[in-house]
Amino acid sequence: MRAWSVSLDTPENVKLAKQACDRAFAKGGMKATFAEAKRTNPQNDRMWTLLEIIAEARPLHHGVLMSEDDYKDLFMHSLFKETRIVPDIDGNGMVMLGRKSSRLTIPQFSDLFDIIHAFAAREGIDLKELGGPHND
After folding, report:
1. Long-range contacts of 116-123 (CB under 8 A, 24+ apart)
2. Residue 130 lies in a domain
3. What was the pLDDT predicted at 136?
């Protein structure tokens, strides 16, 4: 059996996973890894909508012109409080290395939304609520 993954989010998928475990055990065993589910597509869509609203409402952050991607990096840093910086290839500048939102779990994405909403509230930015605070 080749490597595969299944979300344990429906009774049918749980049944498939159990069958795969039984087959793997019968063949001498395999390694299984369980991890929290990653972000949902609605969470990702909502994040980019919020970032667009913020970048439009507040294009400058401490005098620096900010894009949606820049704000995403800013909020991701707030989520993890982690910054890694390395010299660029030419040695003339610095590059910040960071986390990818695609690797966030669903609860981490909710925490990211809390950070975005707190920033918007502090800055007086109307996020238009879009159906609720997290829409996930």
Report:
1. 116/47, 116/50, 116/51, 116/54, 116/75, 119/54, 119/75, 119/78, 120/50, 120/53, 120/54, 123/54, 123/57, 123/58
2. no
3. 47
